Amino acid sequence: MNENERIQELRKLLKQYSYEYYTLDRPTVPDSEYDMLFRELQDLEAKHPELYDPDSPTQRVGNEILSEFKKITHERPMLSLGDVFSYDELREWSKKITDVYGEVEYCAEYKIDGLAMSLIYEDGLFKQAVTRGDGITGEDVSSNVRTIQSVPMSIPYKQRYDIRGEVYMPKSSFNRVNRERRENGEEEFANPRNAAAGSIRQLDSRICASRGLDGFWYHVPDDVNSDTHYGSLEYARKLGFIVNENTRLFNSIEEVISFIEDTAKIRHDLPYEIDGMVIKVNSYALQRELGFTSRIPKWAIAYKFPAEEVRTKVEDIFITVGRTGKCTPNAKLTPVKVAGTTVSFATLHNEDNIKDKDIRIGDTVIVRKAGDIIPEVVRAIKENRDGSQVRFTFPEHCPVCGGKLYRFEDEAAHYCVNTECKARLVYSIAHFTERNAMNIDGLGEKRVEAFLNEGLLNSFEDIYKLHNRREDILQMEKFGQKSFDNLIEAIENSKANSVERLINGLGIRQVGEKAARILAAHFKNMDAFMNASLEELSEIKDIGPITAEYIREFFNEASNREMINQLKLFGVNMNYIDTSLNTDSIFNGKTVVLTGTLERFSRNEATALLENLGAHVSGSVSKKTDYVIYGTEAGSKLDKARELGVATMDESEFEKLI
Ligand code: IVH
């Protein structure tokens, strides 16, 4: 068998295995075997780019990055459904039909909590996936939907085929994704629906691929392959689509209701979220007779489950401090089962929420899960009070560091602004070292955390003492001499940064990269910025009174002022270096390496000068290096530059160019 034939064979085999695994949920080979064949195919395809096939299983890992999604007008509009919230309303809907047509057959399905999607196939091949959008026009999210393994890339049907359904995030993926986000300090998704929608809107399809989405397919508009809705679903299943297996036919609305009741009992045990049931008239002939009102079909209706609410007692109220310093009040509850899990804590969101709902310690309360995920206290049952209940007063000090808490105008939350508060330390140091801030390569969140645990880092200042901790650091796992040297060099280089990087790195609320630049350009140095009055700050264009207040509160904190002084003593530059005029230098956009001892400049000064001219100053020479500037006693770096044919210049040439 030649390589071409092997590629075709592997594609066929892997398609079959992944259909069995993802669509039928009945794997026939161990994962390791699948992975091995997959890698073999990847290698062969890399060797034979001429055999590229968009339909190959390797094309589903996400390999497209778009700048925007194309707008697509649906050939047939994507409709929404009318809602009912009680069985009586459901009976009324059915009565309107049976009054005219007598008993009819209903198809009852789970209402999947995800986002609606239309899949288009032409000539048996997947052509496009389009979101619902406003129902008329949606967005082409094909590159993301392609990464959903259970969505077929080819079907044994040659006519144009438009099948609609729901893309959703299984609970297992949701839990995993949120755990990862928590670990990375990113905001968690409130529920699987938001998570699915957020993933489908990613322009980088690799991100979507990593999110573990899936789909259920439940509607084929104007299907020519069957006379009934249920028949269409069976046909779709034969074509390779996942149709939810809990789809049932009934001859009366009372039978439908008892199916709904049964489902309500088990819905929290399902591996995906459902927020109700959809009931459809099964016969297409009857559907056509019934038709539509405005944008809603009369032949289908959505029954929404009520949010499950239970009673329990608030045993205590306590504050947790998030990684950004945000303080959230929580209720400690007498454990109670709600929406499938035992709940012992519920968020109280913020001070106003507690006051508005008048929730007191000792109260009997109603609890439910927002979006069926995050437990919250709905209200207190005031009739149950016996006088032992205690009002909660929001603390004035951070429960973790004791620093003063601030509640800013127009914000409901309290914040701890002490950058050295343990609760926010990893987060704030990692922000300080970020590329757009002090740009200290090799000191990302994971490493900050490890250093913190070793007692090597407790503040921004400590970063500039790390060179003294060589022995301790080299003892750590995954830390070699080379990474240590690189880290110390990156820290050293950061001292030369123009001050807007430091301002950004401080992590003052609402002062990100852009505001930091405006402030640095305005005040020119740290002292002027740190001592500016509220009025002075508010008057700056694009800063505004709220940000001004955040800045003032930050510098009113004595420990923050002391931190700036310490950084100054360590040699961190506190001045603004205006780069706006210098973009026509030959160094602009180039990668430059300094080596040897320069006579007229310190390493920091030379770095600052080069960065000022738009250069990236790197520590090692490679093919990507544009210039090597050398002083006396230049060694291996200069040799390597010459070997690679990289342009070199000595100090005096460099001086002339600047
Ligand atoms: S049928 C014309 N069936 O619910 C019929 N919709 O509230 C189109 N949904 O926009 C929809 N599960 O996103 C249908 N089994 C199901 C569904 C379902 C979830 C969603 C869908 C729709 C929304 C309406």
Tags for this entry?
658 residues; alpha+beta; Helix Hairpins; D-amino Acid Aminotransferase, Chain A, domain 1; OB fold (Dihydrolipoamide Acetyltransferase, E2P); seven-stranded antiparallel sheet; five-stranded mixed sheet; 25 helices; 37% helix; binds 2-(butylsulfanyl)adenosine
Protein described:
The protein has 658 residues and is α+β, with helices and mostly antiparallel strands. Strands 14, 15, 16, 17, 18, 19 and 20 form a 7-stranded antiparallel β-sheet that branches. A 5-stranded mixed β-sheet has the order 2-13-10-3-9. The chain has a 4-stranded antiparallel β-sheet with strand order 5-4-7-8. Strand 23 (627-630), helix 24 (636-644) and strand 24 (647-650) form a beta-alpha-beta unit. It is globular and about 95 Å long. It starts with a helix and ends with a helix. 34% of the residues are buried. It binds 2-(butylsulfanyl)adenosine. The site of 2-(butylsulfanyl)adenosine (IVH) has 14 residues, from strand 3, strand 8 and strand 13.
